[in-house]
Amino acid sequence: MYSAKVMEHFLHPRNVGVIEDADGVGEVGNPACGDVMTFYIKVKEDRIAEIKFQTFGCAAAIAVASMISEMAKGKHITEALKITNKDVAEALEGLPKQKLHCSNLGADALHKAIEDYLARKKEKEAGDDGNKPSCAR
């Protein structure tokens, strides 16, 4: 049913955990239907320097989150935004048809974390500008 790659990531997931002072957080899923996934990212010079995830879901959901964390780590945020559910499924050497929605969760959670980072960055830049002394503007 699952590829050897999916089983490897399910049994030995990479980058599991929480980043307490994350620059971006993205959560997707619905606890009522079972699958919930959260990504935490630290960004340095617009590159994903650190990435962690938590997921509540099936073997495929855990494998997808693990694979995405490896695919995104070190990438520029514009490159990481291009990671698709199809890319993840291919990197895992396929997912059963009924589990393809798990790859959507992973890509969506990563994209939400990046969008959160960009929103915080924009807010911080706007706030920083307003805090400068009037003679520095």
TrEMBL record:
Signal peptide: none annotated. Gene3D superfamilies: 3.90.1010.10. InterPro entries: NIF_FeS_clus_asmbl_NifU-like (IPR017787), NIF_FeS_clus_asmbl_NifU_N (IPR002871). One of its GO terms (molecular function) is iron ion binding. One of its GO terms (biological process) is iron-sulfur cluster assembly. Residues 1-123 form the NIF system FeS cluster assembly NifU N-terminal domain. It holds the Pfam family NifU_N. NCBIfam families: NifU_clost. This is FeS cluster assembly scaffold protein NifU. The lineage of its organism: Bacteria, Bacillati, Bacillota, Clostridia, Thermoanaerobacterales.
